[in-house]
Amino acid sequence: MRHHGVLYEPRRHPEVKDPAVVTDGVRWHLFGSGCGLTSGLEILHATAPALAGPWHEEPPVALRGVDHVRHPCAPGVVVEGATFHLYLQHAFNALGGHIEHLVSTDGGATFSHADTAVQSDAGLGEAGVYDPEAAEVGGVRYLSYAAMSVVGQPDLYLARSRGGTWAGAWARVGCILSHEQVPRHNQRGADGYEWGLEAPQLLALPGGGVLLTGVCFLAGRPRGHRQRLLLAVSEHAAGPYVVLGTPVRPSGRRGAGENGHGGAILGPDGLLHLIYQDRAGEGRPWRILRATIEVAAVAAAAEAARAPTGETVRANRGGGP
Length: 321
Description:
By secondary structure, this protein is mainly β. The chain has 1 helix and 21 strands. Strand 20 (271-279) and strand 21 form a beta hairpin.
């Protein structure tokens, strides 16, 4: 693992979170949550000629037809040709919300509502849905997202496009990673429980297999120092997943602070680039960091973590607490 430091510092906004990085073949695009303005949340948009930058901040994304989304944040974005698809939650800490699908044909500057991708469904344990992200694995298009029956206790879920397009319709696959499958994650009912698993994103690995990034909250640590970027792997998008651990340490002195919501990109250099939010301590601003890892290292870690008995979960073997 190599840490490259800050990919994007807050500029217009006091802090930035929830990065989604894509390329249209000409430029790289960073979307995320612009936080801290008195006017509320905005969808951040920045562009660069290369993944490493330099990044130019564009005007905040204009959203059309989703006035019911009062606090737009945590965008999931995928590009198909000249069309950008954005998946947007209603809220991260509420039941009854849905995931909306918007489309842009002007390079990500303006997104217009197309349809509702995933509706909340209490009968399926998905009374609240949020943190959507899109991915194509083996020619199949998927939406991953966090879902919960109780606010603050989400697990990671998946839906598959039955129509073979980014418009769906979306068939629920179900839960692909739960609290109980992440040993170092704080468990429901435990003293000091903070939050569940969230922000899932899939990446098809060269040569086969799937990398899952997500967010967990470590047990036994003080608040403000518990959130971590989580990695897991599977042979199939629907799992079962082998938990590799938390690969990157927070950027604060002696590992103080926390990191989380992010994803992985296979860069033109053949490396896996982890793009994630980080803050160096409680009360410090969130910013976007980058680290890289060899694809072969991920494959080797997955093989080492897979038990011969078929067990699919192992304790953290990543970058420490």
